[in-house]
Design brief:
This protein is about 30% helix and about 10% strand. The protein has helices at about 15-25, 40-55, 70-80, 115-125, 155-160; strands spanning about 30-35, 55-60, 80-85, 90-95. It has a four-stranded mixed beta sheet, sandwiched between helices. It contains five helices and four strands, in the order H-E-H-E-H-E-E-H-H. The longest helix is centred in the N-terminal third of the chain and has 14 residues, at about 40-55. The chain has about 160 residues and is an alpha+beta fold.
Length: about 160
């Protein structure tokens, strides 16, 4: 179910919103680092403060701290944020600011109807001719011969040309 105001699902962010946040977070440097001690109260406070300041925070996780997905989920649970991405030992966390939010998440994505192969063939065809219309006149391929009668390839071969 979607929340009326934010467009987010109960589970968190939609796929389109995650993609948008990943694009925004690509250029960010890690603000909070989780050390060998793992997720502690001090790390939670630092991350909470960083989320208040920035809304979108990149967190560097220690390789010896265990599974990165579990650590990121625990950090998100502690701070009430959503995990937009875990890549290697780096997590991207987002929490919307209640006052003056900087990041406006996109709404649900709607895709235009895909044309079928039959529609593509119809679009490529010329429109049907009306009664009494003839075909368009043939155009010579080489513009130098455009004004001469019999400027087609067969005529050139008969005359000994190429």
């Amino acid at each position: 179910m979607k929340d009326e105001g934010t467009g987010m699902t109960r589970e968190g962010l939609t796929g389109n919103q995650r993609r948008y946040l990943r694009a925004l977070g690509h250029h960010l440097d890690p603000v909070v680092r989780v050390g060998h001690a793992g997720v502690t109260e001090a790390v939670g406070r630092a991350l909470d403060r960083a989320l208040l300041d920035h809304e979108l925070v990149k967190v560097k996780l220690a390789p010896a701290g265990g599974d990165a997905d579990e650590t990121a989920a625990e950090l998100a649970r502690m701070t009430g944020s959503d995990c937009a991405q875990v890549l290697g030992h780096t997590a991207l966390l987002y929490r919307r600011r209640e006052e003056n939010p900087r990041i406006e998440l996109p709404g649900p994505r709607t895709r235009p109807a895909r044309p079928t192969p039959r529609d593509a063939k119809r679009a490529a065809r010329p429109p049907p001719r009306k009664n009494g219309e003839s075909r368009a006149p043939r155009v010579a391929r080489n513009p130098r011969h455009a004004g001469r009668p019999g400027a087609g390839k067969a005529d050139a071969r008969r005359r000994g040309g190429r």
